[in-house]
UniProtKB/TrEMBL annotation:
One Pfam entry name: RT_RNaseH
Domain of life per record: Eukaryota
InterPro entries documented for this protein: DNA/RNA_pol_sf, Retrovirus_Pol_polyprotein, Rev_trsase/Diguanyl_cyclase, RT_dom, RT_RNaseH
GO molecular function: endonuclease activity; hydrolase activity; RNA-directed DNA polymerase activity
SUPFAM superfamilies xrefs: DNA/RNA polymerases
Organism annotation: Austropuccinia psidii MF-1
Ranges for domain Reverse transcriptase RNase H-like: 342-446
Designated name of the protein: Reverse transcriptase/retrotransposon-derived protein RNase H-like domain-containing protein
Reverse transcriptase domain ranges (all copies): 94-250
CDD domains in the record: RNase_HI_RT_Ty3, RT_LTR
Length: 475
């Protein structure tokens, strides 16, 4: 840790969890749970304890004792008038046990919290051009959150030797992330509105362009953490970095990459054996699809496996697609973080297999101008679109790409580059057919900021070849 960081860390030492105070107790932000039924305690919420083998019962006793010592649980009498109980199960991973509560019935009866959770990609783009990034993680965040008396009665768990009541928010409640996001946004309203503090549930990220302001911002955050009696874990704090791992990515102010550790954990597994496993794999790969050129083309054979009418069978073409998707996940290039003051370039290309596009930007990296991708998008062609001619297909895709990338393109100068010269005539077409008229109207929203350009097919390589592009010496 740099010397400049020692002083604020010591000044606000009570912000960090210790052996004596391992868990915070956040003041003034109690969580309530409201049911959507007239009968406050429906019989479906009353459950018997799961049967446990002796090994699991011993582990369960240890977990409950730890939570009672932390002030998360308390024991309640068996003869209390109002009892809502849920069961406990124990899961094992690498020889270690974990206590898991079955709150599914309660979650079904709970009125959902509507507080917005930030979109992950939009959250990461807020770090654009930041030269210094610090991250903090609230220790067992949900369990630092107190409950109202009403919520405590609903969060009771049953084991063979008694009933316990949660005093703080447990894991497994469907609205817990929304309540926690609301609480942190309430604690740091000015910092969030100034756009240098980023909060994603219990991840807290501070970013700035100069070291002096970074120290001031860090002190402001630590001061409020101490004020509300929150605790953060020191081993998960990163105070000296120009890049860090966050939300499954390696992120800096200039570039965004895939966290290879996350990918390796999935790719080390054997090939999927069931539809459910394939759906999980495609969901994981889809999370990183903005890094993957032609994702829709590669994955289309795998998506067919998930069709309810299709039997699970790994044919030769599906195995090839699975291996190709694994390969591109492992070797996916870094993409540029958007610099909002510079214009963009949208390369589009449509073919019989699907629609593909790359959104590019030219930036100065290591004192040299470099053009690289900000994201890739792609999709398959619908059966009703397969009858379109080349001109219609390219016009269709231009409109789809504009809508898909509206977050980047709205209010930004950009060039839309295609290898179909007919697209340039779309805006000036005097007698368009029904489809062309609809697309013409959709494009007019971007007319003042967009320049349509034609690039002949033999030199229009960006939309097809950017998967091999990589940022040299990317920070």
């Amino acid at each position: 840790m740099k010397e400049e960081l020692i002083e604020p860390s010591l000044k606000y030492k009570y912000a960090f969890a210790t052996d004596k105070e391992p868990l915070g107790a956040i003041i003034g932000h109690e969580v309530d749970i409201i049911l959507n039924v007239e009968r406050l305690y429906p019989p479906l919420l009353r459950r018997l304890a799961y049967p446990e083998i002796p090994r699991a019962r011993e582990a369960l006793e240890v977990h409950i004792e730890e939570l009672m010592d932390l002030g998360v649980l308390r024991k309640v009498g068996l003869n209390e008038l109002e009892e809502v109980t849920t069961t406990i199960i124990i899961t094992w991973n690498n020889g270690k046990s974990r206590m898991v509560e079955d709150f599914r019935a309660l979650n079904n009866y709970t009125i959902p919290e509507r507080y917005p959770i930030p979109r992950i990609h939009e959250t990461l783009t807020q770090l654009s051009q930041a030269k210094l990034i610090k991250s903090m993680d609230s220790l067992k965040g949900f369990q630092q959150h107190f409950l109202t008396d009403n919520a405590k009665k609903l969060l009771r768990i049953i084991v063979h030797w008694g009933i316990y009541e949660y005093l703080r928010m447990p894991f497994g409640i469907k609205d817990a992330p929304f309540h926690y996001q609301r609480m942190l946004n309430t604690i740091f309203p000015e910092e969030v509105s100034e756009a240098w503090l980023i909060i994603y549930i219990y991840d807290i990220i501070v970013c700035s362009e100069i070291w002096e302001s970074q120290l001031t911002k860090l002190e402001r955050v630590l001061h409020k953490i101490v004020q509300v009696n929150m605790k953060i874990t020191l081993k998960k704090c990163h105070f000296e970095y120009s890049k860090l791992k966050a939300l499954g990515h390696v992120v800096s102010g200039l570039s965004l990459g895939i966290d290879k550790n996350k990918v390796a954990a999935v790719l080390l597994k054997l090939m999927t054996q069931t539809k459910k496993e394939m759906q999980s794999f495609l969901g994981f790969a889809g999370y990183y699809r903005q890094h993957i050129k032609d994702f829709a083309r590669i994955a289309k054979f795998l998506y067919k496996i998930c069709d309810q009418q299709t039997a699970y069978e790994m044919t030769e073409e599906r195995v090839k697609a699975y291996e190709e998707l694994n390969n591109v996940l492992t070797n996916a290039p870094f993409i540029l973080m958007t610099y909002w003051k510079l214009p963009l370039k949208l390369y589009i290309d449509a073919c019989g297999e699907g629609l593909g596009s790359a959104l590019n930007q030219k930036q100065i990296i290591n004192d040299k101008p470099v053009e690289g991708p900000i994201c890739f998008i792609s999709r398959q062609i619908h059966p009703t679109e397969a009858i379109y001619g080349v001109s219609q297909m390219d016009c269709l895709f231009l409109v789809w790409a504009l809508k898909k990338l509206h977050y980047y393109l709205d209010g930004t100068l950009f060039d839309a580059i295609t290898d179909c010269n007919a697209v340039k005539c779309l805006l000036s077409m005097k007698t368009p057919n029904r489809n062309m008229l609809r697309w013409q109207i959709a494009i007019q929203e971007y007319g003042g900021n967009m320049t349509l350009a034609h690039k002949s097919g033999n030199i229009h390589k960006n939309a097809d070849g950017l998967s091999k592009w990589a940022l040299a010496n990317t920070p």
